[in-house]
């Protein structure tokens, strides 16, 4: 199960926005994010699997001290979570994301 990490705002003029916000996709589908949390007492990177199905004992979010460690934690969680939800729920998620994307393009939120 490949994961792709890409900038959420690649064309933003503000370098912080380009460097602090990351999108995670699997099979071309949005599955989560990694975001720099600079306002915390100790700045951290927050990671989150955003596929909306029950988490069968698998942590779907957390904090790390670097983007690289957040990506490793995301990968570890995803490798447990994706098999746990099964193919039927994965296909439901893909359909959900397609619907959200279509509504966004039509500006019907």
For the secondary structure, the number of strands is 5
Unreliable spans are none
Radius of gyration: 15 Å
Cα shape: globular
What is the percentage of strand-forming residues?
25-35%
Percent range for helical residues? 40-55%
Task: Give me a quick take on this structure.
The protein has 109 residues and is of the alpha+beta class. Helices cover 41% and strands 27% of the residues. A five-stranded antiparallel β-sheet has the order 1-2-3-4-5.
Explain the overall architecture.
The protein has 109 residues and is an alpha+beta fold. It has one domain (4-105). It has 2 helices and 5 strands, in the order βαββββα. It has helices at residues 15-20, 67-105, and strands at 4-7, 21-26, 29-37, 44-49, 61-64. A 5-stranded antiparallel sheet has the order 1-2-3-4-5. The longest helix has 39 residues, at 67-105. It is globular and about 40 Å long. The chain starts with a strand and ends with a helix. The mean pLDDT is 92.
